[in-house]
């Protein structure tokens, strides 16, 4: 993986260079010499977020309200313990 570092000015002057650089690794974008942002390919972003998603994150996704999902309600029955 190769990390490319560009200043904000370089990014504004040559966005296509930054987009091409994401094919081989992340692009660090600096403001006044300090890292401020990271540009990733969409595939790399998906790979990173797919590993860390939990059910709470998935349910909080934008657009989740547009998905029809009605899971069946479960009934859990208990039975007395047999200590004999």
Number of helices: 4
**Topology as H/E string?**
EHHEEHH
Can you count the beta strands? 3
Could you give the order of strands across the largest sheet?
Answer: 1-2-3
The CATH superfamily of the domain at 4-56 appears as YefM-like domain
Inertia-based shape: elongated
The description of the largest β-sheet is: 3 strands, mixed
Distance between the termini: 64 Å
- Oligomer description: single chain
- Which class do the helix and strand fractions yield? alpha+beta
Runs in which pLDDT lies below 50 for 5 or more consecutive residues are: none
Percent of residues in β-strands? 15-25%
Q: What's the rounded overall pLDDT mean? A: 87
How is the secondary structure organized here?
Elements: E1 4-7, H1 8-13, H2 15-21, E2 27-31, E3 34-39, H3 42-52, H4 55-59
Parallel strand pairs: 1-2
Antiparallel strand pairs: 2-3
């Amino acid at each position: 993986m190769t990390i490319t570092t560009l200043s904000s000015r370089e990014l504004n002057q040559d966005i296509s260079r930054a987009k091409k650089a994401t094919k081989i690794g992340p692009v660090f974008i600096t403001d006044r010499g300090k890292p401020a942002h990271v540009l990733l390919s969409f595939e790399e972003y998906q790979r990173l977020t797919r590993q860390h998603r939990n059910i709470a994150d998935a349910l909080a996704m934008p657009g989740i309200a547009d998905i029809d999902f009605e899971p069946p309600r479960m009934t859990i029955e208990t039975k007395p313990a047999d200590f004999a």
